[in-house]
Design goal:
The chain has 11 helices and 6 strands. A hairpin with a 2-residue loop joins strand 5 and strand 6. Helix 2 packs antiparallel against helix 3. Bound molecules: iron/sulfur cluster.
């Protein structure tokens, strides 16, 4: 590359940028690509700059408006794991649950009592997705059965739905010891199951409960509820709202009103309670 005339290097850089934009058009709009994806393009631009600093300036300007840099690149998830395609295409939801029950794909397998796959109605109005099982859930093998689960039941009731009419799952299917937040490796290992689960459950609407679910589903390690809540997103053509985790509502009363505002967005879209 270093022997090529600068014009050729510039053309290569522009072609690489065009290719990147084409690839982005064909990919799901909500999956934000980690900064690492742009590294080859940046390397080409840097080589162009070495060949002629002045002429290379427009190239740097062309690249600058790219995806927002991710704060902690190491924790960016593997995009391939977020595809709605899955390697269990021949399995139905019950068979997928059996696959999860024997999973050893991450270290959480070593400390769980039970896997917590998820439960509820197929084709529900709403699928709620939380972070991961806590102590009660680990014991029972069911999602949201502790105090946070009781509050979630109340939230669902306030939406004029019942738990049985919804589907409830978590990003990771095994309890992190000490109720710690699952790390990037746990989420990346477990996300293919959630993707396969959503595909089979076919919810009308998804509600993400808490920052961990938002990080996983938006592929944004820097996601925070405060910046994503209060609006309806589209996720693979499924409307989706982000709100606070019921455990956070139990800790912080001030989150209750905004959480209710978020649920009202769901209700309005689904014509509930009217
Ligand atoms: S958390 Fe998910 S990936 Fe890890 S062992 Fe459990 S089921 Fe497998």
């Amino acid at each position: 590359m270093k022997d090529l005339p600068f014009e050729v290097q510039l053309n290569n850089a522009v072609a690489a940028l065009r290719h990147l934009l084409e690839v982005q058009k064909t990919q799901t709009p909500l999956l934000i690509r980690p900064a690492a994806v742009n590294r080859p393009l940046r390397q080409q631009v840097q080589k162009g700059a070495a060949a002629g600093r002045q002429a290379a300036a427009p190239v740097r300007q062309a690249v600058a408006p790219g995806p927002r840099p991710v704060q902690n690149e190491i924790q960016a998830f593997n995009l391939a794991s977020l595809s709605l395609g899955d390697r269990w295409n021949n399995l139905d939801l019950g068979e997928l649950e059996k696959e999860v029950a024997k999973c050893q794909a991450c270290e959480l397998a070593g400390t769980r009592t039970n896997t917590v796959f998820g439960e509820g109605k197929i084709k529900p109005k709403v699928m709620f997705i939380g972070e991961g099982p806590g102590g009660e859930e680990d014991k029972e093998g069911r999602p949201f059965v502790g105090p946070a689960g009781q509050l979630l039941d109340k939230m669902i009731g306030a939406m004029t739905l019942s738990r049985q009419e919804c589907y409830i799952a978590n990003v990771v299917k095994c309890r992190p010891p000490g109720n710690k937040t699952p790390d990037a490796a746990h989420m990346e290992a477990c996300l293919p199951y959630l993707m396969a689960q959503i595909k089979r459950v076919q919810p009308e609407f998804i509600v993400l409960l808490g920052a961990v679910a938002a990080k996983a589903m938006f592929n944004r390690p820097d996601a925070v509820v405060g910046r994503l809540r209060a609006k309806v997103h589209q996720w693979h053509d499924i409307p989706l709202v982000v709100t606070y985790h019921p455990a956070a509502l139990l800790r912080e009363q001030g989150y209750k009103r905004p959480a209710w505002e978020d649920l009202k967005l769901v209700m309005a879209r689904l014509n509930l309670g009217g």
